[in-house]
Design a protein that fits this description.
mainly alpha; 0% strand
């Protein structure tokens, strides 16, 4: 049975001429036998889904640091919503859904504990700097599977490292994920802000709502439909000028009213201090990091980079536990 080959032929018959076909992948850094039933991008998607880094996303901050309530987003739920947006758009445009989903699943693997606060902290203390998109690539190439990496295809790795707006993916599927990421966090961060009483939908300026709608659900619908309508059967991913301008305006509004709001960001300073202290602790006590990371130093990796690898991999809960272990006095019993 030639299941994978048949699926690859079906891609060639059905997908857009601008889609990235599995059979045309630039391949992996290390050659390996193809799966007999899964095209390469589906296989990559599965590898990311089953990775430890993906599972840790469930306990990493999205916007609200350790909020009270079960329905606030985490980095994992953000990732799932990005993947859903990307699949919807990719399917409508007849692009490669497996590639889009694999990129979406992997794009935030490199995020630190406590979200962008942790990222800023590591970037401030590490002389080599720290960017979460670059760390996401490092995880899939070098750190996962105890230093073996996931050996993903070039196209997936390209989409992961280039999901930020100041970078450009080389595939349309990567460009879909890059926009889907922004659409997802604007949509769900607004939803969380409404739930937390930070905002009401009526707070959004009229010049924005006149273009994208008045409710959070209408915004998501408008953004996705606009991308599909303006990108269908084209070799680029486009939004119309008014909607693209509104996307940037609502993003700026969210930065002003939510992302820097002291109610949802009041603990950021302490979270950043904790991450900086943990970084310095492991710089001074390098023997306490996992063995496979020590091996990276034996292979020539900088100590600072390896410490960043360890601290950035921590979940919020694990970082707090380690900080308490090292720096919070324990009660003791006299026998």
């Amino acid at each position: 049975m030639k299941i994978r080959e048949n699926l690859e032929e079906r891609e060639k018959e059905y997908l857009s001429q601008y889609a990235t076909l599995s059979m045309n992948s630039k391949g992996r850094d290390r050659e390996e036998n193809p799966c007999d039933i899964r095209p390469c991008f589906q296989r990559d998607r599965d590898r990311i889904l089953y990775s430890k880094s993906f599972r840790r996303l469930k306990d990493k901050t999205q916007v609200f640091l350790r909020p009270d309530g079960d329905h606030y987003r985490t980095r994992m739920t953000h990732t799932l919503e990005v993947a859903q947006n990307a699949r919807t758009i990719a399917r409508a445009l007849r692009l490669n859904e497996d590639l889009a989903e694999a990129i979406a699943f992997g794009h935030d693997l490199g995020h630190t504990p406590f979200g962008h606060a942790g990222e800023r902290a590591l970037n401030a203390v590490c002389p080599l700097g720290f960017k979460h998109n670059e760390q996401s690539l490092r995880i899939v190439e070098r750190l996962e599977k105890e230093g073996m990496g996931l050996n993903l295809t070039w196209e997936v790795r390209d989409g992961i490292v280039n999901h930020e707006m100041d970078t450009t993916p080389h595939t349309l599927e990567g460009k879909v994920v890059r926009l889907s990421d922004k659409i997802a966090y604007i949509h769900h961060d607004m939803d969380d802000a409404l739930r937390g009483g930070i905002l009401s939908e009526g707070d959004v300026p009229k010049q924005i709502t006149d273009v994208i709608g008045r409710t959070n659900g209408e915004w998501l619908d408008t953004f996705i439909h606009d991308i599909v309508e303006n990108s269908y059967d084209k070799d680029e991913i486009w939004m119309s000028d008014p909607v693209y301008a509104a996307l940037h305006q609502i993003r700026s509004f969210m930065f002003e009213r939510v992302y820097t709001n002291p109610v949802c960001k009041g603990e950021e300073g302490r979270a950043m201090d904790m991450v900086k202290i943990l970084y310095q602790h492991y710089m001074d006590n390098i023997d306490q990091i996992p063995e496979y990371l020590k091996q990276l130093m034996n292979q020539g990796e900088a100590k600072e980079k390896v410490v960043c690898d360890y601290v950035s991999s921590m979940t919020d809960r694990f970082a707090v536990a380690k900080f308490e272990e090292y720096y919070i006095p324990k009660s003791w019993n006299v026998l």
